[in-house]
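Quarterly update from the structural biology core.
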Amino acid sequence: MKKLLAILLSLACVFTALTGCTSGNTTPTAEPITAAPAADPTQAPVQEPAASEIVVEEPVAASVTINTFSTYAGSDGNAQNYQDALKAWQDKTGNKVSDTSATSDENLKSRIRTDFSTGSEPDALFYFTGADADTFLDKVVSVADVRKEFPDYASNMKDDAVAFATDGNWYAIPVNGYWENFFVNKTVLEAAGVAVPGPEYSWDQFLSDCQKIKDAGYTPVTASFVDVPHYWWEFAIFNNTSPKTHGNIPKAADDDAAKAWIAGMNDIKQVYDLGYFPENSLSDKYESLQELFYTDKAAFMLDGSWTANAVKTRCSDDAGNINPDLIKNYTVCNFPSKTADRKSTDMIGGMSSGWYITQKAWNDPAKKAAVVDFISFMTSDEEVSRFTGTGSSALKNGVTLDSSSLSSLDNDIIASMVSATTYTPAVQDAVAGDARNAMFQAVPQMLAGAVTPEQLIDDFIKTFPQ
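Predicted structure, tokenized:
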């Protein structure tokens, strides 16, 4: 018999204490039990029809097509899970889905803003919950409003563990939470004579390891600053702040937040100038540079929890069976700590995405119930467990996993999460629009020496609305 492992990973320190709308539990009233009348012996017994002969006429609801969008696409580790879930819901309901999911990057965020401004938004949207959503909050439906007509909507979620929008309301139902950390190719480390980092990994140790890896003819860290600069941007800043102050945004060039951000940019430049990133990290996209990690040419890859599924897929056969001899070559380790204010066991994590119902679908009588049912299906305990895996969730019952199916990488991730001292939300989620886009686009210029870290942050302060 398979043993089920319920993972209840607490992220209480991540979330701001905001009061959400709660759904009361209604205890069903038992029907009164009455005795059946005694049979009349003068009457012939009634022959009941066989079960197979009973025909029940039920109204057949017209099939509807709902338009959906998510970031489960491209190299996202849940891309296949998403496609499987779409098919399962369509098979279950007879409804259809027209999906236009795309890989998450800064260009995508511009596209979503444009879609909402032109009336081209989907019916159901899986998207970020921070400041990125500010431009369309008036065009999506709050959970409180949905529950007025569908009281059980998201009743399997902990209301105090979800992500609230900047206006204090709850709109998006989460699927999988996230954490960010180093993924490690142990084959490369072994070839370079470098030990797998322990839980307390220092910045100086990291730089020393990178030099050994480079000297052995490998790329220490794969990364692309063309389309996915934010992981390094986030952790470099985190390394110069603390879990308590990481959410502070610079308002003046000489305030503490600005100094921390400048120091973080200098740290990224140090790693770049030492030649620890790929030579083409300023020109090639991330999806292509990830291959260095998967083909045993790069040792480290800084990414999110969703990448665990991508690694497992790379180590599986066509039937989805993980090869234990391949998966054991991968593990995770903590991003190195530079100061005592941020320990290596202090991680970036939280709930930053979820499913929205748009006003466009809510006001369409033909689609309203179907969209509610779709999101309820996608955020059910079963689907969330499938998508989350060893990540985090807002489920009241926690994620349920088949312990017999856990790989060595899964077990390493669980050990890493259990040893985490704090989880801090990504500060980039509080920075939306042109200011963040301009800063991310300027990171390659900074690494190339065209602008200084001080100029980068000063330009950000000038464009970010205070």
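Residues 1-60 have pLDDT under 50 and may be disordered.
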